[in-house]
Each structure stands twice: as C-alpha cells, then as structure tokens.
Amino acid sequence: MNFEIARKRMVESQIIARGVSDRRVIEAMLKVPRHVFVEEAMAAQAYSDTPLPIGEKQTISQPYMVALMTELLELKGKEKVLEIGTGSGYQAAILAVMADRVYTVERIRPLALRARKALDSLGLLNVNIKMSDGTVGWEDEAPFDAIIVTAGAPDIPQQYIDQLKPGGRLVIPVGTQFEQVLVRVVKQEDGSVEREDITGCRFVKLVGKFGWSSDD
Fold first, then answer.
1. In the chain, domain spans
2. How far is CA 69 from CA 20, 128, 153, 182, 215, in A?
3. What is the pLDDT tens value at each position of the chain, 216 positions in all?
4. Catalytic residue list
5. Which fold has domain 64-201?
C-alpha cells in the first residue's frame, strides 16, 4: 500500500472537502503518517474515514475530527499545548508539528508507552507524556495557550479553565457517555469564558476525579 497516496487522498476527501481550511492543519495532516499510530495489522485502514481500535477499549479518532479539533485551537506555531488523552499519540503528533511544546496526559500505561515509541520514531521530541488522571490537567506546567481533550466529559472540569491562559482556547467533547457535543471555550482577559457548541460527536468517556468513574 502506498501510504503517501492514501494520506493525500484522506486529506483531500475527508478534511478539505468537509471545510477544514487552516493551511497549517492541512500540512500537518499531510505530513504525519497515521499508520505509524495503529497496529501493523490495521495499517491498511489507517487512512479510512473512521475511528479505529488501539486496544485497552480506546480508539484513534476519525481523521476529520482530529483536523477539526486542531483547527479550532487556532495554533500559530509558538504555543504551549495540553492534550488530555494521549491514546495512540496521533493527535499529539499533529500538535507537535504545529506548536512549540506539547504536554499530553494518559491514564493507561501501555498506551502511553506505545505512543512514546511512535512519537520518538518520528523525531517528535517536543512532546512530553505523563501517566496520570487527565481530568486534573497538568498544573505544574500551566498555563497553556490551548487545551484539547480527546475523551467525552460530563461537564467541563474547572481545572482546565484555570490552567488556560487568557485568550487561550479549550476544545472538549461534553455530554453523556454515548454522545457529546464538541465545545470550544475561549478564556477572556477577566477570567470569564465564551462557550461555542460546534458539532455532535462521539468519544470514549473521560475517566477520572472530575470526569466519569471507570465503573459508570
């Protein structure tokens, strides 16, 4: 399989055709090899228009959703970004080629280790991974210019708002365990927030102290 051709086709038909227009997002999606972040047996499906299982009851997000969420962050290149839910590491890789520094939190050790290996194989050394409860954020490295959450939350944890710089953007799926709305929050200079509902979506649940219980 020619992965480069498959990746170009993915970007043209799944991303540009659906309205993603940020040139830096498009270039990142063209550059980062998505097949590196799935199991070898599923590599041929890596550029298909769907999420894929990555083990541990988790998924790698649909390419369009990765592109859309990244575009909503409005990255220019010098940002410090927090990602909640490392998963396969693919979203972190996209962020890594678009921002200065990426901090990503994963609660499942095998996923964090595999993501680190994949990111290192691509020379993406500006990504820092921590194994922890992602619902509390990463206070020691705050504040962040942008925060992206790749799991569905019952509500927006206040910790994320607190760890966001004034003018910063937060993108997070909010709703039930079975369906959510993708929400963008922009923090104002006075600490208040502007909230915008973007589109319906479906993510695995955000598990932790300020999210869902693993038993829910």
1. 64-201
2. 10, 20, 15, 8, 28
3. 799 999 999 999 999 999 999 999 999 999 999 999 999 999 999 999 999 999 999 999 999 999 999 999 999 999 999 999 999 999 999 999 999 999 999 999 999 999 999 999 999 999 999 999 999 999 999 999 999 999 999 999 999 999 999 999 999 999 999 999 999 999 999 999 999 999 999 999 999 999 999 877
4. 61
5. Rossmann fold (3.40.50)
